[in-house]
Amino acid sequence: GLDSTDLEATARADSSVLRMTQAALFLRHNAGRFTSKTQLVFTHLGNIEEYNALAGEMMGRFMYGYYIEGSYALLVKGTHTLTAFARYSQYDTQVGTTSEMTDLATKKDILTCGLDYKPHPGVVYKLDYQFVKGTGGVATRHYVTTGFGVWF
Length: 152
Prior knowledge:
- It is built from two helices and seven strands.
- By secondary structure, it is mainly beta.
- It has a seven-stranded antiparallel sheet, with no helix packed on it.
- A hairpin with a 2-residue loop joins strand 5 and strand 6.
- The longest helix is centred in the middle third of the chain and has 8 residues.
- It is elongated, with a radius of gyration of 21 Å.
- 3% of the residues are buried.
């Protein structure tokens, strides 16, 4: 175990010195009013055993997430667009925990369907429905969310 009175060992186990390596892949394809997108992100954390011992946490060595999305522009009039979309995503924030660690229900499968309205290319209003299924006895959840975004 980690001796919490050893200042050098404690400094090495501090979360600020966790080593993180991350790789991501993003693909997008447009064909007329149809758009498809996918993204995959994989993360490796180093020094995790020491961190877990110090913090009493059960973080895994790896995290991953991905999504696949399809959309169709229902309305295109001037700068206004109304787009319907469906997205399937999955992520797990605790891959690679040690055998004595329990399932923390950190894996999620999410199906999202919704509409995006863009009155201008730099503004979006969003309405969507999410069906979220977890592991480890976590109940399935249903959400309706709205959003507003501006970029320039």
